[in-house]
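Lecture notes, continued. The same structure-token format from the folding unit now serves as the input rather than the output. Read the line below as a description of shape only.
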């Protein structure tokens, strides 16, 4: 790499966790819907989402 990275502090700030959240929620990113139990396969060319395992071993 031809550049330098300098940290502004020794430790990251603690997150503001409140304990709130959802289980089994459906998420959507970039016009793609992710549901509980979906299988996601990814490589440098893209992603593939299936509702069941399509690759041996999951």
């Amino acid at each position: 790499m031809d550049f330098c990275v300098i940290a502004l502090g020794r430790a990251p700030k603690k997150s503001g966790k409140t304990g709130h959240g959802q289980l089994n929620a459906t998420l959507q990113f970039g016009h793609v819907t992710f549901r509980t139990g979906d299988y996601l396969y990814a490589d440098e060319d893209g992603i593939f989402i299936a509702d069941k395992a399509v690759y041996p071993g999951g």
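Point for the exam: The first strand starts at residue 27 and ends at 29.
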